[in-house]
Write a structure and sequence with these properties.
The complex is a heterodimer of chains A (about 220) and B (about 300).
Chain A lengths: L1 H27 L3 H26 L2 H29 L11 H26 L3 H20 L3 H23 L4 H29 L13
Helix pairs in contact in A: 1-2, 1-4, 1-5, 2-3, 2-6, 3-7, 4-5, 5-6, 6-7
Chain B lengths: L1 H29 L9 H11 L10 H18 L17 H21 L3 H32 L4 H10 L7 H17 L18 H4 L5 H26 L10 H28 L8 H21 L2
The chains are: A mainly alpha (about 220), B mainly alpha (about 300).
Chain lengths: ~220, ~300
Amino acid sequence: MHLVHFAAARALASSAVFLFITVLLMATAKRISTCIVLFSAQCAIITAEILAMAYVHKSPEAYAVAALVLIVKVLAIPYALFRIVKNLQAPGDITASTTAAQSVFIAAGLILLSFFAVEPYSETLRVDTDMLAAAIALVLSGAFLMVSRKKALAQVIGLLVLENGIFLAALTTTFGMPLVVEIGIFFDLLMGVFLMGLFVFRIRDTFEHLDVSKLRRLRG
Amino acid sequence: MIWLNVAQALLLVAIAPLVRGVIARLKARIQNRRGASVWRPYADLAKLFRKEDLTPPSASIVFRFAPMIVFAATVTAAAFVPVVHGSALLGATGDFILLVYLLALSRFFLSLGAMDGGSSFGGMGASREALVSALAEVPLLLGLVAVAILARTATLAGIVQWTVRQDFTQISAVHALAFAALALVAIAETGRIPVDNPTTHLELTMIHEAMVLEYSGPSLALIEWASAVKLSVLLALLIAVFAPWGMAGGVSVPALALATLAFLLKVFVLALAIAVVESSIAKLRMYLVPDFLGVASALAILAVVFTALMR
């Protein structure tokens, strides 16, 4: 029991660091498959954090949420994305408009920005500064991944990272939403990924590539 | 105390070829080859020391003395790194900045010697080395600065003694980022894949091998040994700054034996990591190397900024 308590405390204290590392790695990643694995790892970190919170606050609902995150985000969505990548038979690179070094610099800047952004609120909300900053950093860098990546699938992953950030912000500020709402969000997300997958296939079939910077034919 | 510090610096110099041999052997095993004996680098050095030292007719005195300065500077750098206990031979006389620039001095003279050799390959290798080392200097210094700010001391021995007192389950963002930056720098500085391929001898993109093409005999042996020592110095630096737990607290035979064993084990783990990375990824194009080191710089800068944010 002592060991579980220790592990929970450590998971809460160091998960922000690991989330920053996944964000920075995503900024450097050159292939879609790397991004998907990193997204899965990011969700696994969040799962560990929810488990630790559930243990510390003795909340059975949080265990259910952790199980949902594990099934939907760590396993189902990466699996679906890998299936899409395999069936698309398109080149697996992400073609970013910034180089890896520039991306890391920008992601690092966004992490710093989120620290300064949450500083005034962490006092009044009485939440952990690191966790809230990690949540805001995920939102910002998810948005950054969406605007800097040219391939449609990489932008989908950016959106998923952004969603992770919103989820984490809700978790740290209000200790999660009611379970029913949470389940609704997860199914929304799953449907969203399937819809985006279909959309990606349509882009490929219509334009024969996934590079959204070349989608100019729609102009009237 | 002094004999112990001499012994640990000599240990670092003596095991350097073995580390290379172990990495080569591990790589061979991963790639389903049998591989040469781990002691082969020693045999290579012994063979080279017995051979004749040839100098190109166009070369000046710089060509003759460069290998000795390279070796001397690298071995001096080895005397700064705590290996088995929390102090080093020259630990009190200089800080980590001196260590970084001793390695830079060795690189500078290696490049000079390469250009003095007169072959076009030497000049190409020297200019590439200058590019890589200029870009690698920033993350190497800043990564160490970040840890030094946390430890509130600039000497390596002080940083090590501070880190040993910390709880190793407390993963701080600063340490994670600085470690990532320094690991990338160590790869670039020692000319491993993906920056340079240490096993190639005839490739247009080679860096280190292009510089030493004109050297032969004892001079080549000194340069090769120095580059092996540099690898083990950087590995020992990573171990000392980020994972020094297991170092001997006092001077007693069992504690020192245990510390030596722990050190060798950690070096083996790092060697295994290098072998896995080198077997699984391809060498970068030369134009992508600045990008690789740019990532390291970004991580190092972030580590320094985080020292102010996360206490």
